[in-house]
Fold this protein.
Amino acid sequence: MTAADRTLDEFADVRAGDKGDTLIVGVFPRRAEDFALLVESLTPERVAAHYGALVTGEVRRTALENLPALVFELPGVLGGGVTGSPVLDGHGKTLGYHLLTLAV
């Protein structure tokens, strides 16, 4: 396995939720020493590109060093939110797990 074959799933867990049509994804490294790698690899631009056309605005990232965790806000990804979206994943739980496929 090369470094290019390694995905976020090998380093972290995610939890997802919603706020309107914005997907909120928390990324939690399994080992504290991997936090620096995630900070370097998971830029807002890379995360936005990973979700592609679903993102309708600027992706924001907040680093919570004391946890450690990264929190991403992805506007528009939920297509109207829980009450306005016709999709089955209105809360974004499955879409949160999609981030685990990103190469790091």
Notes: The chain is about 20% helix and 25% strand. The beta strands are 12-19, 22-29, 60-64, 69-74.
